[in-house]
Structure formats: structure tokens, C-alpha cells
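Dear support,

We are seeing what looks like truncated structure output for some complexes. This example has two components. We would appreciate it if you could run it in full and send us the complete C-alpha cell output so we can diff it against ours.
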Amino acid sequence: MTVRVRFAPSPTGSLHIGSVRTTLYNYFFAKQNKGTLVLRVEDTDQDRLVAGAVDSIYDGLHWMGVTWDEGPREGGPHAPYIQSERLPLFQKAAQDLVDSGAAYFCFCSKERLAAMRAQQQQRKEITRYDRHCRSIEPKEAAERARSETHVVRLKVPDQGVIGVDDLVYGRVEWPIETIEDQVLLKSDGFPTYHLAVVVDDHLMGITHIFRGEDWLPSTPKHLLVFQAFGWPVPPIAHFPNVLGADGKKLAKRHGATKVEQFRADGYLPEAMANYLALIGWSPGTEEEIFGVDGLIAKWRIDQVQKAGGKWDRDRLDWFNGVWIRRLSEQDLLGRLDPFLPAEWDRNVIGRALPLMRERMRTLAEGRELVRFLFTDEFPLDAATQVPKKKDAVGAALALERSAAALRETTPWAAAGVDAALRKVATDLGWNIREVAHTVRVAVMAVPIGLPLFESLELLGRERALARIARASEILGEGPRSA
RNA sequence: GGCCCGGUCGCCUAGUGGUCCAGGGCGCUUCCCUUUCAAGGAAGAGGUCAGGGGUUCGAAUCCCCUCCGGGCUACCA
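Here is the complete output from our reference environment:
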């Protein structure tokens, strides 16, 4: 049997990092089994639709390198792949269940339901539907359904136990009396999630149901629906949630949660996939740098963790740095490009690249590292120019001597700059670190960054001298203004 | 409240009865390298394996209880 798995996002916002992890696992499984991956858009809640959400799903997943075989834009043998375009299928399915006596029409108003729930809560009872409409004669119900607004509810058995052998969580069982007569078809004619997933997973020939842990509690509902139709239940697995630092499901308040945000911040898809895959899965070895191909080869569902994993930005940053360093210069330059202003000379960037790559954890950081090469407009602070244990007068002298030395340096290259500044240091009785510090701040504004000598080479003699001159002026003003 | 799931260093995790007085990675500390910062190298701190009872010659690993955390509990997905 060919493996067919699906990922079924709701277009209710831009692509969440947690959904990406789940999708990745589906993708790995499909690929390693030479199976088919299906994208199905579950837009059965018309109130929560967000424009552009499907674009976000496509953009985000494609950026990550995930591809699928069937979907809204790809088409396929089970089209359409958007649930709102499959309404007749769900309506027929619901009607079949009513006809077979497994489901019934319910005419209760939302107000009655709300009042009932409030009462139950007040009496500290379990809040669930009281099956008020379940006793209406089918004939009468069918008649009323013609004119009255109604929903279709599942007739849940009175008692018993229902369970699943989850591929990750193992055997999980629920007492049936804790499950209410679930709404299958809403009054607007749309199915609920619980009807739609079951019907579509069956119709689309899905062989393995993989989804996030938060769906585990509603699995018995789905089991009951499968049962009502008399359909076989495919193997099911739930994957542990991705959590925020506080242990709760990762959400907006925890910071960035959208793929596009990470993309915009300069994270590489390789790093995202690598990092994400390792939340909730481990190869069981000490290897941890994996490309997507490696993940496809190594990922195994029986190695998936049950406990949720917390999001750790530092670890992501580390993975990103690792992947940045693994890129060829050519490749890295290409990735950097969209992060750089168009007017920044790419040849200069290319020359700076070897200096940058070990210092940037994100592409955006890379941009900041070379900013000083392209703009003379940055704030200079006299105090930071002065090395520890030195004073402004000394720093001014160091700058003056450095400028003089650099004026003479030929050819204008890092090695010569190195030698020249070392000589200045010796003459001054300073440490080269101290001279470099002062010059660095004069030229780059901050005491950290790319190596100074190479940076000066890239900057060019004239601009370097101009900046040193400017810094000297500011240094001279320093004591007076202070 | 009810149902369900989970609980190994701050974080991601290895570990499925002995080779574990618990291993790796991130982060942290120190040192080396060094013009800064990184990267790289070396060393180190950090864990009553949630707690308590069992079972067993032997338990992080099996059983029970407790505690803590989380998810779900809609005509949301």
C-alpha cells in the first residue's frame, strides 16, 4: 500500500512554526516511504478565515523546502482540496449518517445551548449537550429540517470505552460517556472539523493520520465518526507540542511564531528545519546537524518524543550560525542579497564575506556587520573611543599618529595597516589592542565587529582617514562638553 | 470541575532492568588562539532521573500512589 499522508492547516493566519514542525514530520514520512503528501485546506469556519493565509502556507513551506504532490494549486485525483469547495460531500455524508440512524437533526438554538451550559456549570455538572433533540421522531425531524435551521449531531453510544493505539503515545482510551453528541454539520451547511477530517481522510485515501498533540483529546470523536460510517481507522500519531518558555503552547506572546518572521529575520531554512526537527525527535545518536535529506533518511516515528519541547532561540541561533558557515561563499552571498540595500556594492560585500561569515548568526546580523562600509552616518561617542586606562588626550594623539602612519601605508592592504598601527603602538608605548580600539571606534563606531585591519583595507584610505579626522575632532570637544 | 497527556542538568535531548555514582548539544564559566567580536580548541560548573512507596540480587528504565505542568472540554480548528 502506498503511503498517503496529509497536512491540513486552517487558513486562519500566517504559517505557525508549530504547524511547520508537524508538516515536516509528515513530509519526512512521506518521502522516506516514497509516498504522497497532500495539502488540504480546512476552511470550514467561515468566521475565522484570514486573507492571504493560503499564500503564507505555500510561501513558508516552499521556503522550507517542503513540497507536496496534491493540493489546491497542484490538483490531484481527489480535488478539490479546499474543504469549503467540498460541501456537498460533507452534506451527503451527514445525511447518510442520519439515514442510517447514526446521527440526528438538532434544532436547539444557540441561546438554549448557552443557557443549558450555564446551568450545568452552576450546578458543577459536566457541560455537554443534553440530547434534547435526539428523541424527536426521525420522520418529524426530517420534516422540520426542511424549514427550520438545524445542525446534525452524532448519536454517541451511552457507554463503553473507545481507544486508539497511537504511534507515539501508545494505547489511549476514553470512557464514551465523557463524549457528547458532537455537531457534525453546522447550521450554515458547513461541516465541523470532526466531520470534515474523517470524511476527507477517508475519501482521500489517507493511510496515516499525523497531527499535533492538541488533537489527541478529540480523537475519540473521530473514532466514533469512523465507526458510524463503518470505515476503517488508519494508524494515528500525535506529535508533541512546541512550547513557549513558560511551558504553554507557543503563541504570539512568546515572540515570533510565524515562519515568515524568521525568514525576514535572516534565518536559513536549513537551520529552521534542522532545529525544528530536533524538538520532539532525536536520532538516538549524538549527531545533530541534519539537512532535510538527512532528516528524511534518519527520522523515525518511534523516536518521536511524547513530552512537549520548549522553544529555545539561542539554540536556533546556534544552528543558524552552523548552517551559515556551511554555505559556500557564493551561496551565502545570494542569501544575503535580499537583506542588503541595493546600493551597497556587492563586490565589497563579496570581499567582506570571509570576515562576516563566522560572526553572523543571522543574515540580518550580517548586514549590520558591514553597515559601516557603506555609510558615514553613525553616531560617534568620545568616551567609547578612549581605551581603558587612557585619556582623551592620549586617544587623540593615538589617532593623529595612526592617521599619519596610514597616510604612508603602501600598498593599502591589511598587512601594511597591521604593521603601521603596530609601529604606532610601539612608538606610543601603547598596546596594539589599545590603538586598534581607538581606531576601530573612530572608523566603525563600535568596539566590536569585523577585524580592523581588513576593514580598513575594504574602507579605503581616504574614507578611513576622513573618519579618523572626524573622530579626532569629537575627541577634542569631548572634555569641554563634559 | 471533567477527560486525556506529560515530567532526565536553565533549554533540546540520549537512555526501554546491570556496561549510567546518567551521555551529547545549546546556553553559562575559565583558559588557549587573538587587533575587538566571533569562529575554533581545551577545561569546568550544572541533574535527589518530579516525590513517595513497592517489584527485583539490581530501576531513570517495571507497578502503585501523590505532586506539578500542559492540552481539550464551541454550530473554532
